[in-house]
Every structure is written in structure tokens, then in C-alpha cells.
């Protein structure tokens, strides 16, 4: 067991876990941040997507000790205080989810896209989102939600 | 059978554990004008099956102390939006704001026993039961209020939890009317229901109320359920279905893996309980590496699967026989074809999870099972316990599209909880186990033979279907839950025959004078159960592929050819609609548009579908460009909810059609993750357009399965149009159509 200090959603949190534990278990089990989902555990589905220093990464593949040196970790819970991030709002407007299980990963991936590219084309959205699986088949609504979010963000900026 | 409630249901229930969000629209404006109350019509038709099992109003509708309503449904939310649909019908009949209606989904002892959430029956049964129960509640409340207020019913208004006189001088809340009681009247006909033309929620696109918490990462899935002091466990699954445990050496386990609490061995069932989840994963791996098992019965060679199926099949059973097919076929030219479909996985994004706690008397279980009462029966048999001592609460899970592994994870947790009482035990399945032990949708063979008469109309139709069971859902046969098969005294599952719709839709809905359907049941090498739309997916792939071949032989347009064999106006309407949707398509030389039609089960929803593809003849590469669906599910409850289900179903079925098959060699199942068992992703999805024909005065049919079956045929027909290759064996992969 070792103690690590993690910077998660702008809060410093201490956890005591064995080295080598994946960040996904630390988030879900030790910290109760269950918005990030386990689905494959081997980097194939994107359900566990989080942001590390604003870049999207799969938490199931990350070992906790490599992310305890001040890297800024953001999970779905840290996206906004009241669930009113433009992407979250667009998701509701598009009524994107079915079961919702994959959607935290989808949203985190989409936020990262819009941060880097505020006005993506449909093709760019598909390419960027390609690694995030949805068994319910909500892909089209997700694309619509990303487009709605892009439109609303550009409105705010103008 | 009505379950005996754990708590007295006669008295008012405190509003617990539910935070209603938002403000009520009507209730907030006290002193404002009274709403206009919609007119009622008398309903004296059939009541849904679920009412027969839970007859009284309070089995479905409870009045809470704070004036809100709690609806009890025996169904489980799995992304199909049933919670919102139920809120809509209850709010409609009781003239309440949506947010004053809570929905309590399945819990043994509390909600009605509605069997399984599946077969698209949630709307037909649960939502419709709630409609009539709510209508009956309204009638009772008005009757009681009329006596109490000494005012004729006609001079009363009922809305948002109160009854008041039209003059406005007297009013009572529901709670005051009932004085602490619930309504225990039977739901019976005739009952006044709201005139559908005046509906304000039903038939509209009411936004789902659970999406806010999903996008905040706060939705309550079974995988997120935590209890104080909870511990974790995993089960070491055998290397094969029939493997038995020979030796297990756990001597070094504690030294190697920290946090191990207990290893549980019962015959060939091996579980390990640890403090933390990642410890459980490590411990499972350790035990796997330190155990020896017998080898299982070998699987057939994959290339020989369909030959094998025919070899092991029982003698056929004639399911339908009209006219005289043999005589009609004699001496005339027929078109014959054989269609095949491999085993397909549920591949839910959320691997199964189950929690259990044995308090010394009652075994409490939390599960995303689709049928908590039937699961309870299976567990009662397996554990030799009284069913009443098993208390199961349904918790939402990820979409699983049929009977998958939820019940198995709950069973694992139950077995372990009995060995380690008074502590909550959580069993999380791995992706590998999920993909390996899932009861797959069975492989099928469909052989069709049909002939045309001198007017180019279909004169005879013969279908032979080879199918395994499409339902091995839990019931009192404990062999239906996985772990039971590995105990000291194992339970083996009894054969299910045709149960579960293997030959469903193999007899087309078209008017054909001579028709025969034979079904050959086989018990195949893999664990199987129901997968969204059951046998219909393969049968409609076959039927609608052959319809295109017959249309071609008759020299007719495929849609016109279908229309010439239909008499039902609703069937004709969906075909016209899909024709209209695709009318303006430009089709390039390498492209094709294909069509398919189905009436689900020949008795339920209608759908006509189209697919547009582009095919690269050299590489065989298929681009699925767009799909269209015209759908009639009768009365629409939630327009957007239905659209979402249809769209998602088309994408999932396209995934089955173009990509999916269980791969295996003689020793093992090989496709045990998303790389080796790929599903459709963003870069591969088609555009989708859905048109819904709402028929408010017709029965509401389930929608969850409807878009699956025609998808494969529409795609296969489009590919044929695009490149002249017809594929008879799913999935339709580039090798099967490439020229080289
Ligand atoms: S759980 Fe991390 S990618 Fe699937
Ligand atoms: S919404 Fe169910 S897996 Fe994506």
C-alpha cells in the first residue's frame, strides 16, 4: 500500500492503494466517483474516459502512481457544478442516451473535441468519437448533441 | 399470483428516497384559474394480462402523504424509457403534473409480479395496466369526495392531487379523501378513461426525466450501488461449459494478494471475497492459475456448425399448414434458398453485476435482472429456501437486449452472501466472462421454397427452420442460473423446445394460399437465450430476401410485389410511407436501395424499412449510407422515445448484420472482447430516418424489437441491387461479396 495525492476535479484527494492499481478502480471504488464507467477494462470501449490535463484518456489503462504528481484529472462529475456544461445541456436537448451507460465516456470525449475544435464537421466528430462504443446505438443522437453544443458555444462567444 | 407485501400497503406511505425535481406547473399557481378537465369515454375492452395478476388499484397506484402518486411497476428500466412512459399514462388519467408521479420499478413483495421485462411487452402490459388502474383510482376518488363534500360528481374537478367543487368553495386533497387508506378496489371494466383526443402527455415527445442524472454521471446503475462495509467478490469460471474442478491450491493466495477475506468452494463453483475490487480481480487470477479442471466437451468445427446443427436436430414439428403446399409445388418451378445466421452476443456495455446480503433470515439481493420474481423462483430451488425469504430489488443496468447475465451475477452474489452473512457482497463480472458466458442468441438455419402462379403471385410457401431455444430465462428450474450448474449437486437445465419464438415470423404476413412451416429444434453446443426479436431476426432476413428474389422473377418492383400480397391497410400504409421516404433518392451505379417489411409476430407492430448502400465490387467493402423506417406501433405513448428505440435498434441490427458472430474453435470461444467481437462504431453508422404513424385508437404495441428483423434483409437486398451478389449467410462481410 502507498499513499497518493491526486488532483481530481480541482480537489486534492489522498488515496491509499497498492501501486499498479488502475485509476478507474481508484475513482470508482476508493473515491466513489462512479460516473466514470467500467466496461472492458482493457482500453477497447471508452466508457472510462476522463481528462488528464485536459486531454481525453482511458482511466482503465492508467496506473495511479503515474498520475499523482499534480496532473489535473477531470471526471464527468467535475465537468460542471450543476450539470449545466454546454455539452451536458446539449445532451439533454438531443435526448441522446438510451440506457446511458456509455454516455459519461461519450460526453468526456466530446468535451475534449470541442475544446480543441469548437466547430467540428460531422466527419471530424465521427473520427474523434470513433473509439467510444455504444451498444444501444445512440451514435446519431450523440453527433446531434455535439453539433448542438458547438452551436450554443459559438453563440456564447459571439 | 400476487406477492404478499413486506410492509402494510394499507396505510399512507411517506415519500422516501426520491427527490422530485422542478416545479409543478399547475400546482404552483394556487388561486389561478382551474384547468379545463378533459372529457372521459367509457372503456369496456380487454384489460392487460398483468391486471389479472395484480387486481387492485393499490397494487399499481399509491397515494403518498404529500399528495404525490407512486406507481408500482413490475418492470425494469434498461434504457427503453419505460419509467417516463408510465409517468405519462398515470399523469394523463389523473390530470397531474408529470413530476408528481414517481415510478417504483420492480421489487419482490412490493411491485406486481409481471414476469420478465422483455418481448416489448412493457407498454402493452405495464403501462396499460397503470392506465386503467389510474382511471379507476380517479373514479373512486371522485366518488368518495362526492360523499364527503356532499356535492354531485358532475360538480367536482379532480386535478393535481385535489378534488374541488366547481364553485371553488370546497376542496379536499387525495390524502384527506382517503384518510390514511389506499384504494383497494379491483380494477375492472367499464371504466371511464380520458378521451384520447384531449391527451396532453400521451402521444407527445415528453423528454425523459432520467437523462439529467445520466449526463451528470449520477445515474443509479447496479454497477454503482454501494453499501457501508460492502465487500467485493469474483467467481473463477471454469475453462469450459462442462469442466469440473479437480484441484484448487489456495495456499499462497493470502500471501500473494492482500485483502482476501474468504474463498468459497462449492463443487465446481469457486468464488473469492476480498475487501477491494481490484483485489478480487487479482485473487480470481491467482486461483485460476492455481486450479486444475477437466476438459469440456469439444465444440464442433466452426466451418461445420450448420451441418452439425442439422445432425443433432429433432424431427420437425409442423407449426402451420394451410392449403396444400406439396400439391402446389409439384411439377412447378420453385425458388429455393437456404439462409443462415451465426450465434450473436448481447455484448452489453455494462458487464453484469449483482449484490447480496444475508441477514440471517432473509437473503436480500439487488439485480438488473429482467424478471426478479422468476429469478427468485430459480434461487429458491437452488438454495432450498422459501421464496418469501428471498427479497430482490431491481436496479437499472445497462441496456442488455434480452436475457443476458444479470441473473447469473445475482446468483453468484447470493451464493457468496450465504457463506459470509451480514455483509453486502458485490460481484462484478469481467468483460471476458460477460462475452464468454453470455447466453447467446442462437444460430439458425432457414430453408425456404416458394412458387409463383400464372399471375406472378405467390402460390406456395414452405419454410423449414432450425433453431435452438430462444428463452432459457430463469424460472423454478434452477439450471437456468449459471452457478447452479456447478454446485456439488448440480442442477442441469431442462430442455426448452421451441419456447421463445424460434420460428416467429417464418410464415410471412402475406396472403399466400398454400403455406407450411416446419420447425426443427436442436440443442446446440452453446448456452443460448433470448436476444432482441428472437427468431424473427433470422426468419425475416430469409423471408424478405426471398421476397426480393420472387419479385425479380415476377419482373416486378419489390415494393409493388409486396403490396400485391397484402390486404391489411396498416401494412399497406407503412409500405407506402417508406416508398415516399425514399422516392427522391439518386442512386449511383455502385449503389443500391433495398426494402423489407414485417408485421412483428404477425400480430403486433408494422414496419417497412429501406437501406441504401454503396459496394466496392473489388474489395467487397460495404458502405451503409442510410436507413429508413416507417413504423406503426398502434397508439404512441412517447413519440421521441419510440423514435430513439427504432433508431438505436436499426444501428444495432446493422451491427449484427455486417459484423457480428461468435467465433470459436473446438476448445474455446475466442471472441471474448470488443476487438475480437467488434460492434458497429461511429465511423460505420448510417444516417437513419424514422417516420411513425400514430394510431391513438389502436392498441399500443411494444417497440423495442420491431426494427431489428427487417434490417438484415433491407441491407442484403440493397447489396444485391448495388452489385448483383446475394448473401445468404450472416454476417455480410466483404469476403462474401468481393469479386476477387
Ligand atoms: S473500460 Fe476503459 S476502455 Fe473500456
Ligand atoms: S446508451 Fe446504452 S450503451 Fe450507450
3D structure, described in words:
- The complex is a heterodimer of chains A (158) and B (740).
- Chain A has 158 residues and is α+β, with helices and mostly antiparallel strands.
- Chain A has two domains: 2-76, Roll (Ubiquitin-like (UB roll)); 86-157, Orthogonal Bundle (DNA polymerase, domain 1), CATH 1.10.150.
- Helices cover 36% and strands 16% of the residues of chain A.
- Chain A is built from five helices and five strands, in the order ββαβββαααα.
- Chain A has a five-stranded mixed beta sheet with strand order 2-1-5-3-4, with helices on both faces.
- In chain A, strand 3 and strand 4 (55-58) form a beta hairpin.
- Chain A is globular.
- Chain B has 740 residues and is of the alpha+beta class.
- Chain B has three domains: 6-202, Aldehyde Oxidoreductase, domain 4, CATH 3.30.365.10; 225-295 and 348-437, Aldehyde Oxidoreductase, domain 4; 444-739, Aldehyde oxidase/xanthine dehydrogenase, molybdopterin binding domain (Aldehyde Oxidoreductase, domain 4), CATH 3.30.365.10.
- Chain B is built from 18 helices and 26 strands.
- In chain B, the strands form seven sheets. In chain B, strands 11-12-9-19-16-17-18 form a seven-stranded mixed beta sheet, sandwiched between helices. Chain B has a five-stranded mixed beta sheet with strand order 14-22-21-20-15.
- In chain B, a hairpin with a 6-residue loop joins strand 23 (591-599) and strand 24.
- The longest helix of chain B has 29 residues, at 121-149.
- Chain B is globular.
- The N and C termini of chain B lie far apart (62 Å).
- Residues 1-31 of chain B have low confidence and may be disordered.
- The chains are: A alpha+beta (158), B alpha+beta (740).
- Chains A and B meet through helix 1, helix 2, helix 3, helix 4 and helix 5 of A and helix 5 and helix 16 of B.
- Bound molecules: FE2/S2 (inorganic) cluster (2 copies).
- One FE2/S2 (inorganic) cluster (FES) sits between chains A (97-103, 134-136, 138) and B (79, 349, 398-399).
Amino acid at each position: 500500500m502507498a499513499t497518493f495525492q491526486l488532483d481530481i476535479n480541482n480537489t486534492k484527494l489522498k488515496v491509499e492503494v497498492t501501486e499498479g492499481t488502475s485509476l478507474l478502480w481508484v475513482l470508482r471504488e476508493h473515491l466513489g466517483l462512479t460516473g466514470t464507467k467500467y466496461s472492458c477494462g482493457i482500453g477497447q470501449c471508452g466508457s472510462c474516459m476522463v481528462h488528464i490535463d485536459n486531454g481525453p484518456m482511458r482511466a482503465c489503462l492508467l496506473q495511479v502512481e503515474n498520475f499523482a504528481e499534480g496532473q489535473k484529472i477531470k471526471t464527468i462529475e467535475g465537468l460542471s457544478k450543476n450539470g449545466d456544461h454546454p455539452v451536458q445541456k446539449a445532451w439533454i436537448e438531443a435526448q441522446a442516451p438510451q440506457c446511458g451507460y456509455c454516455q459519461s465516456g461519450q460526453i468526456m470525449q466530446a468535451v475534449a473535441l470541442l475544446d480543441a475544435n469548437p466547430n467540428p464537421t460531422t466527419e471530424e466528430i465521427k473520427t474523434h468519437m470513433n473509439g467510444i462504443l455504444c451498444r444501444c446505438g445512440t451514435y446519431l443522437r450523440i453527433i446531434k448533441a455535439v453539433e448542438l453544443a458547438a452551436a450554443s458555444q459559438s453563440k456564447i462567444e459571439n | 399470483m400476487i406477492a404478499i407485501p413486506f410492509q402494510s400497503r394499507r396505510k399512507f406511505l411517506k415519500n422516501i428516497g426520491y427527490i422530485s425535481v422542478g416545479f409543478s406547473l399547475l400546482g404552483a399557481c394556487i388561486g389561478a384559474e382551474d384547468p379545463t378537465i378533459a372529457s372521459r369515454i367509457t372503456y369496456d375492452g380487454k384489460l392487460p394480462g398483468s391486471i389479472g395478476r395484480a387486481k387492485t388499484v393499490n397494487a399499481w397506484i399509491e397515494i403518498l402523504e404529500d399528495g404525490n402518486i407512486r406507481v408500482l411497476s413490475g418492470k425494469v428500466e434498461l434504457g427503453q424509457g419505460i419509467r417516463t412512459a408510465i409517468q405519462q399514462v398515470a399523469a394523463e388519467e389523473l390530470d397531474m403534473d408529470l413530476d408528481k408521479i414517481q415510478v417504483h420499478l420492480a421489487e419482490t413483495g412490493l411491485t406486481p409480479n409481471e414476469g420478465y421485462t422483455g418481448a416489448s411487452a412493457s407498454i402493452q402490459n405495464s403501462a396499460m395496466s397503470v392506465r386503467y388502474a389510474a382511471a379507476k383510482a380517479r373514479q373512486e376518488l371522485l366518488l368518495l369526495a362526492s360523499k364527503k363534500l356532499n356535492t354531485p360528481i358532475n360538480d367536482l374537478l379532480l386535478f393535481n392531487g385535489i378534488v374541488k367543487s366547481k364553485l371553488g368553495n370546497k376542496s379536499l386533497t387525495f390524502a384527506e379523501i382517503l384518510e390514511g387508506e389506499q384504494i383497494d378496489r379491483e380494477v375492472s371494466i367499464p371504466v371511464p378513461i380520458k378521451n384520447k383526443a384531449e391527451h396532453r402527455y400521451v402521444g407527445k415527445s415528453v423528454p425523459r426525466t432520467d437523462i439529467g442524472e445520466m449526463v451528470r454521471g449520477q445515474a443509479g446503475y447496479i454497477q454503482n450501488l454501494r453499501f457501508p462495509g460492502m465487500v467485493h467478490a469474483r467467481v473463477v469460471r471454469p475453462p469450459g461449459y462442462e469442466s469440473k474442478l479437480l484441484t484448487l491450491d489456495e495456499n499462497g493466495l493470502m500471501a500473494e494478494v492482500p485483502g482476501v477475506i474468504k474463498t468459497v468452494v462449492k463443487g465446481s463453483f469457486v468464488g473469492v471475497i476480498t475487501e477491494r475490487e481490484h483485489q478480487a480481480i487479482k485473487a480470481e487470477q491467482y486461483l485460476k492459475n492455481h486450479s486444475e479442471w477437466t476438459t469440456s466437451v469439444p465444440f464442433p468445427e466452426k466451418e461445420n456448425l450448420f451441418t452439425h446443427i442439422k445432425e443433432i436436430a429433432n424431427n420437425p414439428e409442423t407449426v402451420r399448414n394451410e392449403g396444400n403446399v406439396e400439391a402446389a409445388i409439384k411439377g412447378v418451378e420453385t425458388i429455393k434458398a437456404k439462409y443462415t445466421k451465426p450465434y450473436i452476443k448481447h455484448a452489453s456495455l455494462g458487464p453484469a453485476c449483482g449484490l447480496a446480503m444475508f441477514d440471517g433470515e432473509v437473503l436480500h439481493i439487488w439485480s438488473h435482472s429482467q424478471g426478479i420474481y422468476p429469478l427468485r423462483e430459480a434461487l429458491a430451488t437452488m438454495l432450498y429456501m422459501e421464496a418469501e425469504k428471498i427479497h430482490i430489488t431491481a436496479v437499472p443496468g445497462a441496456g442488455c437486449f434480452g436475457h443476458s447475465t444479470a441473473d447469473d451475477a445475482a446468483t453468484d452474489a447470493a451464493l457468496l452472501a450465504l457463506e459470509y452473512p451480514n455483509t453486502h457482497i458485490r460481484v462484478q463480472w469481467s468483460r471476458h466472462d460477460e462475452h464468454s458466458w453470455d447466453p447467446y442468441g442462437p444460430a439458425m438455419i432457414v430453408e425456404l421454397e416458394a412458387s409463383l402462379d400464372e399471375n406472378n403471385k405467390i402460390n406456395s410457401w414452405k419454410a423449414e427452420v432450425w433453431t435452438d431455444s430462444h428463452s432459457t430465462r430463469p424460472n423454478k428450474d434452477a439450471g437456468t442460473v449459471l452457478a447452479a450448474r456447478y454446485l456439488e449437486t448440480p442442477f442441469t437445465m431442462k430442455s426448452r423446445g421451441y419456447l421463445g419464438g424460434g420460428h416467429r415470423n417464418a410464415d410471412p404476413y402475406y396472403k399466400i394460399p398454400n403455406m407450411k412451416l416446419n420447425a426443427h429444434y436442436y440443442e446446440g453446443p452453446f448456452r443460448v437465450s433470448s436476444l432482441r426479436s428472437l427468431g424473427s431476426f433470422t426468419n425475416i432476413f430469409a423471408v424478405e430476401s426471398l421476397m426480393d428474389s420472387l419479385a425479380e422473377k415476377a419482373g416486378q418492383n419489390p415494393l409493388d410485389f409486396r403490396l400485391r400480397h397484402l390486404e391489411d391497410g396498416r401494412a399497406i400504409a407503412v409500405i407506402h410511407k417508406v416508398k415516399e421516404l425514399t422516392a427522391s433518392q439518386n442512386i449511383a451505379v455502385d449503389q443500391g436501395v433495398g426494402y423489407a417489411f414485417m408485421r412483428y409476430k404477425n400480430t403486433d407492430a408494422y414496419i417497412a424499412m429501406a437501406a441504401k448502400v454503396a459496394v466496392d465490387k473489388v474489395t467487397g467493402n460495404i458502405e451503409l449510407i442510410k436507413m429508413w423506417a416507417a413504423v406503426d406501433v398502434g397508439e404512441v405513448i412517447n413519440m421521441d422515445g419510440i423514435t430513439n428505440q427504432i433508431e438505436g435498434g436499426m444501428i444495432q441490427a446493422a451491427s449484427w448484420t455486417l459484423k457480428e458472430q461468435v467465433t470459436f474453435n473446438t476448445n474455446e470461444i475466442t471472441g471474448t472482447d470488443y476487438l475480437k467481437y467488434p460492434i458497429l462504431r461511429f465511423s460505420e453508422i448510417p444516417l437513419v430516418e424514422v417516420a411513425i404513424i400514430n394510431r391513438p385508437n389502436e392498441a399500443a404495441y411494444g417497440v423495442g424489437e420491431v426494427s431489428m428483423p427487417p434490417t438484415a434483409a433491407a441491407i442484403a437486398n440493397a447489396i444485391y441491387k448495388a452489385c448483383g451478389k446475394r448473401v445468404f449467410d450472416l454476417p455480410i462481410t466483404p469476403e462474401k461479396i468481393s469479386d476477387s
